[in-house]
Amino acid sequence: xxKRNYYALVAGLPDIVPEEKRSLFSxxxxxxxxxxxxxxxxxxxxxxxxxxxxxxxxLNLLFDRNMEWDERGNYSRESLELLKDRKSxxxxxxxDFPTYLVDFASSFFSExxxxxxxxxxxxxxxxYINYLEQSPNEFVRKYAAYQMNVGNVxxxxxxRKHNIPFENALVGDNDIVAALKKSxxxxxxxxxELPEIEQLIQxxxxxxxxxxxxxxxxxxxxxxxxxxxxxYFTIERVLVFLLKLFMAERxxxxxxxxxxxxxxxLLKEFETGFQFPAEFTVAYGKK
Length: 287
What we know:
Layout: H1 7-12, H2 27-37, H3 40-48, H4 51-62, H5 77-81, H6 86-91, H7 99-107, H8 117-133, H9 138-162, H10 175-182, H11 197-204, H12 209-227, H13 235-254, H14 256-272, H15 278-284
Helix pairs in contact: 4-8, 8-9, 9-10, 9-11, 12-13, 13-14
């Protein structure tokens, strides 16, 4: 099936990142923009990457944590309240929710209910990764596997450094997870299967925690560029922008200046990174 191209949307992405100090474009505003421009099937792909904020909100409800509601989630408080109520789970039409989210909420009323917040979060994360890996979109599947591998490697490195058990913190059940659990080699014997393992080790060895996080995010940034290199105006390019926007947004909260640097980098990439096809130049004018 031919991919849909979003020439006007992608061409306009740099313009939606303002330069004012505190008015950085938000992922909430971006979702509204996407709802106005994307085909429904592609919009659902974008919404997949907003789901972790729904996880936060749902766990907040289930564990009565009284945390501030994260507006980046796809679902309102009223909607997610349905997943907290046993009668609603049994009687309401919940087809708008991903099946894994409904199954997870239902598990709270079974003998297999998670015993604590951490266990619930881990279970939900695993279900989410499995859900992404079943996506018909190759980009989504690749990024899900990448996120899982990087998270597992960093957890294993941290556990090994501080001599604390980390096996139960690993997500998934594949050859990489098996190697992380068993190997005592510096690279866990993963040099062939996971070529980026050495780079991840070097990032982990950075002592300053904020600097380490920043380097890891820029590493992810480069990975996104790599797997979307030939995607110019498709949904994959939009998803790359969204995932980078999440990173920049996170850093604007942790360290505003670093966040601003990320926004500026994102802006510069989209200003200089495209060669517009002839039909776009004729129909819309060269940007």
